[in-house]
Amino acid sequence: SYELTQPPSVSVSPGQTASITCSGDKLGNKYACWYQQKPGQSPVLVIYQDNNRPSGIPERFSGSNSGNTATLTIRGTQAVDEADYYCQAWDSSTVVFGGGTKLTVL
Amino acid sequence: QVQLVQSGAEVKRPGASVKISCKASGYSFSSYFLHWVRQAPGQGLEWLGVINPGGGATNYAQKFQGRVAMTRDTATRTVYMELTSLRSDDTAVYYCAREAKSCTDTRCYPTHYMDVWGIGTTVTVSS
Question: Among candidates A99, A94, A40, A46, which has minimal Cα distance to B120?
Answer without folding.
Answer: A40
